[in-house]
Amino acid sequence: MNNMMKAPPQSDPGSAADLPAGAARRVAAAMDEAGLWLTRLDSGTADPEAFERWRAADPAHAIAYARVAAAWSALDDTPPVLAAPARTGLSRRAALMSFGGLALAVAGVGVSGKVLAREQARTGIGERRTIRLAPGARLDLNTDSHVFWRVGPDGVTLWLERGEIAVSAAAGAGAVHVRGEGVEWRLAPGRYNARLDDGRLELTTLDGVAESRKPRPVRLTRGERLILRDGVVSTGEAPGSALARATAWPQGEIVFEDAPLEEAVAEYNRYLERKLTIADPAIARLRIGGRFTSSDPSDFLAALQAVLPVRAESSGAGVVLTRAR
């Protein structure tokens, strides 16, 4: 037996454990964000310019990223301890990201493995998924969406990468936090809808209270909506059409209320592999309303041809809409 005594581990002067509570929370938040940026960069889904803006915004961001990147690099040489065997066909890094209870042995870098321990889920075009995050907390993913989440002692934290999600939290379910595009939200028990596409983030409070501190203090109550685009935040009462859409998609439906045809087609195409195309610009501004099945546009196309001067013709790639003659 080796009876040599080992020196006690040195405290990392940059670790959250050595800081006051407020500073420790900021360090932990920076580490969380750094871990997410790292996974985005590694998978090729990150916007490099957005990453550089984030890193340059605060020296703590650059420090956190450097520490997490060091831990990430160490994975190539350090055997991980996983809660389950690695899945075949996945790289070690991908396998580490795919399991919840990650224990990571990385010596000397002062980074907890839980920084990278996130679950994730994706949906394909036209697909929906429901995930039970924790007792009383539910997540629904709409078509073509990607989200990370982690369940910890402080509740559930979600990172929306793209697409649309619905979040429901019952009383007693614990805190739910949502992050994405530089915003951080704390959701009280209730129902919420968040959508992120083309750099536009929309959060709608269907029932409950949502509060944020970033990018500025905002409080949303039932029926209110926040839109963030290009760093500009706008808030106010959500239009009835937005509320109708947010409550319809989890039921597999899509709702239009006097919407321009070009807007309705763009929305429908989110759900369809075989896209709808407007071949005649003259019909793009015609308006349509109704409730339809999101996975099958047959009723939608029938309604168009019944009430508007529109003809739908099938093509190899999808359906082409032209003016009826």
Helicity, as a percent range: 25-40%
Structural class: alpha+beta
The largest pleated sheet is described as: 13 strands, mixed
- The number of helical runs is 7
Question: Beta fraction of the residues?
Answer: 25-35%
How would you state the average pLDDT, rounded? 79
First and last CA, distance? 92 Å
Order of helices and strands: HHHHEEEEEEEEEEEEEHEHEEHEE
Low-pLDDT runs of 5+ residues are 1-17, 75-115
- Form type: elongated
Per DSSP E runs of 2 or more residues, the count of β-strands stands at 18
Radius of gyration equals 23 Å
What does this structure look like?
The chain is α+β, with helices and mostly antiparallel strands and 325 residues long. Helix content is 26%, strand content 35%. The protein has 7 helices and 18 strands. Strands 1, 2, 3, 4, 5, 6, 7, 8, 9, 10, 11, 12 and 13 form a 13-stranded mixed beta sheet that branches. The protein has a 3-stranded mixed beta sheet with strand order 15-18-17. Strand 10 and strand 11 form a beta hairpin. Helix 2 packs across helix 3. The longest helix is centred in the first third of the chain and has 23 residues.
